[in-house]
Amino acid sequence: LIDSGSGRFVPLGPLAGWWETFGAPVFSTEGPVAAKLVASADGRASAMVRFDLAGPAPRAQSVVFESSPPPGWRSAFDLSPSGNLALLAHETGASLYAVPSGRRVATTTLPPAWRAAATSFLAEDQARVWLVPTINVRAPEARAQVLVLDLAAGGTRTARFPLTPVPDVG
Predict the structure, then answer these.
(1) Segment 57-64 long-range contacts (CB within 8 Å, at least 24 positions apart)
(2) What is the distance between the alpha carbons of residues 13 and 36, in angstroms, rounded to a whole number?
(3) Helices within the chain (DSSP H only)
(4) Alpha-carbon dihedral sign for residues 73, 40, 156, 121
(5) At residue 46, does pLDDT exceed 90?
(6) DSSP 3-state of 141
(7) What band does 18 get if pLDDT is binned at 50, 70 and 90?
(8) What is the rounded average pLDDT of the residues 41-57?
C-alpha cells in the first residue's frame, strides 16, 4: 500500500496473494487507514489487517471480528470514514464492528436467496448494503428488485426497490 502524498508505503507480503485473501484493500476517507479482509489465524472467523499509514513507519494490526463466519467469495467489506468501524456482509448477515477491538456494534440477517453486491458507509456510524437475488433465483419478479439494508448503532432498516426493466443477468 502506497501513500501517494508522502511516498510512504507498506508491503502487503503474503496478503498480496489472491488465494489467501478476499477482495482488494479498502481505505478510510478521512484518515490514512487501509484494511484488507482476511480469515482469522485459525480460519474460523473473519478478520482484517488494519494498516495505519499516519506515522513515519506504517503499522499493521490484526483485528478478528466477534461472532463472524470465515470470509468467502460472497463477503463484502468496507471501512468507515475514520477507520474506526468496519462493515462486513457475508452469506447470512451484515454487521458493523468497532476497530480495533473487533466488537460487534450492530447486526442484521440477510434474507434467504439474497447476497451482498456492494457496501458503503453513509456516515461514520451508518452503513448501507445493497442486496441482489442469488444467481440461482430464476423467477423474473424476484430478479427485478434490489434490497437495501441500512445499519447503524441504533438499529437496522430494509427497503425494497423494483428495477425496470427486468435484468437478464444477476
Answers:
(1) 57/8, 58/1, 58/3, 58/8, 58/9, 58/10, 60/10, 61/100, 63/35, 63/97, 63/99, 63/100, 63/101, 63/102, 64/40, 64/102
(2) 12
(3) 140-143
(4) negative
(5) yes
(6) helix
(7) very low
(8) 86
Instruction: Name the grid cell of 103.
Output: 466488537
Distance (Å, rounded) from C-alpha 83 to C-alpha 134?
Answer: 30
What cell was used for 23?
Answer: 477482495
Helix (H, G, I), strand (E, B) or coil at 140: helix
* Nearest-angstrom CA–CA distance, 110 and 158: 10
14 and 20 in contact (C-beta within 8 Å)? yes
**CA–CA separation, 21 and 3 (whole Å):** 21
* DSSP conformational letter for 13: G
- Position 38, amino acid: V
Residues in the chain: 170
Q: Which residue has the higher pLDDT, 31 or 44?
A: 44
Q: Which residue type is seen at 12? A: L
Amino acid (1-letter code) at residue 27: F
- Which residues in the chain belong to E strands, given as ranges? 26-27, 33-39, 46-52, 59-64, 76-79, 85-89, 93-98, 104-109, 114-123, 126-133, 145-152, 155-162
